[in-house]
Amino acid sequence: MNDQEARRRLAAARVGRLATVTPGGTPHVVPVVFALVDDVIYTAVDNKPKTTVALQRLANIDATGRASMLVDHYAEDWSTLWWIRVEGSAEVLKVNAEHQDAPTKRERPEQVVIGLDALIHKYPQYAGHPRLGPVIAVHLTRWRWWEAAAAT
User: Fold this and answer.
1) Less crowded by CB within 10 Å, the N or C end of the chain?
2) Three-state SS for 72?
3) CA–CA gap between residue 123 and residue 97 (Å, rounded)
4) In 3D, which of 73, 85, 72, 69 has the Cα closest to residue 35?
5) What is the rounded CA–CA span in Å between residue 150 and residue 148?
6) pLDDT of 53 strictly over 90
C-alpha cells in the first residue's frame, strides 16, 4: 500500500474507531462514521438517542487536543487483511447555540460547514437531520498502515 492507496481506503471506509485519552490517561475508543477532507477527518455527534451531547470523547479532545482513528478490513482470507491508523491534533467545533452544554470551545463555521457537507455526501442518513451536535475535526499529522499482501 502506498500513500495514495492508504488515503483512498481511509476515505472509502464506512466506519472507524476514534481513539482519545481521558485526562486521567485511560484510553477511550468509540466507533464513528466520518469523512476525510484533504488532511482532516470530520465526525459529528448525530441525533441517535443519547442522554447528553456532552460525550466523553468531546471532553477528552478538549483536554488533550489529540485523537487517533483506525479503519480496517477483515476477511476470512487473511491475505487480504489491512489496517490504517491516523493521528493528529483534534478540536471540538460548536455547531450552534443548541449545544451550549457540550464542552465545545471553538467556533469555526467554515470548518463545520465543510465537515457536515462531507458527512452528508458520504452518509445520506445525515440529510434532513438538523440536530447534529458538535463536530470533531482531526487534523492528520501521522499515517501508519499495514496490509497482509505486502507482508508476504
Assistant:
1) C
2) strand
3) 24
4) 69
5) 5
6) no
